[in-house]
Every structure is written in C-alpha cells, then in structure tokens.
Amino acid sequence: RKEVEQDPGPFNVPEGATVAFNCTYSNSASQSFFWYRQDCRKEPKLLMSVYSSGNEDGRFTAQLNRASQYISLLIRDSKLSDSATYLCVVSPYGLIFGTGTRLQVFP
Amino acid sequence: GAGVSQSPSNKVTEKGKDVELRCDPISGHTALYWYRQSLGQGLEFLIYFQGNSAPDKSGLPSDRFSAERTGGSVSTLTIQRTQQEDSAVYLCASSLLAGVDTQYFGPGTRLTVL
What we know:
The structure holds two protein chains of two kinds. Chain A has strands at 4-6, 11-14, 19-25, 32-38, 45-49, 55-57, 60-65, 70-75, 84-91, 96-97, 101-106. By secondary structure, chain A is mostly beta strands. In chain A, a hairpin with a 4-residue loop joins strand 9 and strand 10. By secondary structure, chain B is mostly beta strands. Chain B has strands at 5-7, 10-13, 19-24, 31-37, 43-50, 65-69, 75-79, 88-95, 104-105, 109-113. In chain B, the strands form two sheets. In chain B, strands 2, 4, 5, 8, 9 and 10 form a six-stranded mixed sheet that branches. In chain B, strands 1-3-7-6 form a four-stranded antiparallel sheet, with no helix packed on it. The termini of chain B are far apart. Classes of the chains: A mainly beta, B mainly beta.
C-alpha cells in the first residue's frame, strides 16, 4: 500500500466549477500535512498547509481528518490558471508525496 | 531573497559514469531534502539533512547513491556508475527546521543517462 494515495484524475471541469480532491495516508505518526501544486515540468510549489481545524485561503479550503487519515482540498470558482497537478503531502520529516491529481479547467 | 538553487540544470551522461548534483539551500535553512521525480512518476523522497547529519538514509535507492552536506549549507548528491533507470529530475528543497516547516523547492536537475 502506498503511503499517500490520491485519485490520479484527470478531473476536467469548466471554469467556475467547484472541485474536490481527496487523499489518504497510512502513517499515523505524520505530523504535518500540505497541498502542493505542480505545473507541467516545473518544481512543486506549496499551495497551503493543512491544519486539524481546517483552513481556507481564498478559493481554496483544506480539511484534515486524523482519525480517518484523510485530507481534502476544495477549489471553488475554478479558473483556467488552476490547471495543474495537485499533490497531497504528509511529513514526519521529509515530505511523502502522493502521485498527484491532475486538474484541467476548460473555458 | 534568493531561493533554492541547483546545478547543473541539465546533465547528460553515459551509463557507468559518476555524476555529482549540487544544491544551495535558502540561507538560514537548517534542513535540506533530496527528492527524485521520474518521468510519469510521483516524487520520491531520497534523504534529508538536519544540519550536516542525515538521520535516515534508507530512502536512497541503492548504495550507488550518496549525499553529503558540509557547513550546514551546500549539499551534493553523488550517483556512482549511473544506470539508465537513474534518469530523472532530482529536486532539492530546504526548510527552516526538519519536518514542521514549509519546504521550498529548487528548480531541479534533469539527469539523462544514455
């Protein structure tokens, strides 16, 4: 079983749609959780950290459920520029990445 | 300020040769990480340093891989007797402290082994 599992997608959604990504992790000792965004042939960039109480950053909302070892990312009002691969990441020390979920937003 | 830098940006080598990849972390960051991303694959964690020490080397794919960090700053990842399956983008990241702080990634070194 992979340490971090994500649906690879792709998710093809129209502009303005709301889309949700889910992720599960196996290491219950993980302390830190993140969503990273990776554009094609570029390095990953931090999108947002994920806190136990849930957190929001503009159109992006992240949730963490430690009991179920489950992380989610909700994107509201999708933009064309949101098209990318979204990586679920957990960290005891080095980051353990999921394989990513590809999002394609179309006009 | 300056971000994480890596060199070279691209490296093409012949099978069996040794290669050395360099990472300059953000100034003041005590933790440094190496990852590998193979074509069509996810990111694979290789090793991390807290200061100059690497507490866990089990992520390195084989004994042909080694990494060191000196002076709590620059790190080198060395691959000996390269194989074609070593072809990948090697990414370096740094953070203030290991594990709890945001990691900032360098642009990567694209290694191609012919």
